[in-house]
Amino acid sequence: MPDDLAHMEAAACSDPNGMEDAARRAGQGALMDRLREDYPVGPHDKPQSMCPAFGSLRTGLRMRRVATVLSGSACCVYGLTFVSHFYGARRSVGYVPFDSETLVTGKLFEDIRESVHAMADPAKFDAIVVTNLCVPTASGVPLRLLPNEINGVRIIGIDVPGFGIPTHAEAKDVLAAAMLKFAREEVAAGPVPAPVAGKSDRPTVTLLGEMFPADPLGIAGMLAPLGLAAGPVVPCREWRELYSALDCGAVAAIHPFYTSAVREFRAAGRDVVGSAPVGVEGTHAWLASIGDAFGVPAKQVAAAQDAAVRQIKESLANAPIDGVITVSGYEGSELITARLLIESGARVKYVGTACPKTEFSTADAEWLEAHGATVRFRASLEDDLSAMEGLQPDLAIGTTPVVQRAKELGIPSLYFTNLISARPLMGAAGAGSLAQVVNAAIGNRDRMGRMRAFFEGVGEGDTAGIWSGDPNLRPDFRAMNAKKMAKQARAKAAEAMI
Ligand code: SF4
Q1: Which of 186, 178, 175, 286 is nearest to 244 (CA)?
Q2: 119-128, pLDDT tens digit by residue?
Q3: What's this model's pTM, rounded to 2 decimal places?
Q4: Residue 266 burial (CB count, 10 A)
Q5: Which CATH architecture has domain 204-314?
């Protein structure tokens, strides 16, 4: 176990390569290889938004009767618990602290084991999720050696390092897949409890990806004419749903980045269908793929398509959007959102997603490119900003720093996570839902311009912040620092060539 790890906490976010090397030296080579395969990096290779572990933490916190325990640096845990409570976790987050000594001697693992034994009360929990953050992952804290269950409470250990998982979206996949694997092994071992809500008498489609609560209902309405029902949404809200999720006829990868969860479904013999029922063309194609997966007669599929498409066309006609839009985000639903915007009449010129390209997003990317959009997977913040600055759209939909920059430029903007992900996208309900917020934002351009003129020169560049006098500029220091950084970059490039 490398003894320099305890000093690397602060460096973890900013030095993913150093941490990855440390993890490999600590015997985590197989884990790192798996993460590289499931979550390929490039063009950017480190988190550019919140800590990725927030994705898996939130997924665990939203499950009933599931406890979550973090093992990581105090500063990381502070940030993660702060954000989870900001988003209304209403539940405690467990923490097993460490110091250099407990990390280096292996006592941290003993402390983790002790804490899960103390917590494993079957009256309270179905499962306890223990998450290794960057430093314990890099030092090889072996969560796989934890008992599988204690007193009937399942123990799930996962490694969610920022240097192996580039987005918090993909961290949700890590936990969802770990739970599916566990549940799949339970199913293989013998009978499991039936779902609380009972079992549908029709074959079900499991929906992969967190979505607005009205969307599964809308999807269920579109599946009914095919003789199918909507199954659970994965990530699930309680343990038993995992069994129903696995017990489906096919899986709809509504969000395309659940690579390891898909591996579990395939191991259970389930077919997986990509894209989503958004807009006229998206819904038409999606229903056809679902019909194929279940062998539904073509005539029945055509009738279901006609019924769904008729309603969607009506909703789109009642809620047109006119304007040039750029879309960027890290939720994984950027492509289907852009499709819906285009079908609503918008001219979407750029779609950037922090998620990687997968087989389930290929059709959406091709459709968008055929409709004039440039699609960038694993888009960096720099990609998103330069697209927005270059295109000067009527509306920029994006992440916080993109929206902030758009405001500085007087370009109307909307937060993807808070304002776009918080509405339905699927079927007829989705078709009408975006227009209201998008059109209102586009109509704000004059106001944005007036605000920009009012604040002109305030809080920009060297004048950012509050100053009692003029900022003490030292261009000589900057030049020196720039030289130092260029030298370091040259040395690193030379090292890489050896
Ligand atoms: S756990 Fe998250 S916040 Fe902490 S170093 Fe890793 S990526 Fe950064």
Answers
A1: 186
A2: 999 999 999 9
A3: 0.88
A4: 12
A5: 3-Layer(aba) Sandwich (3.40)
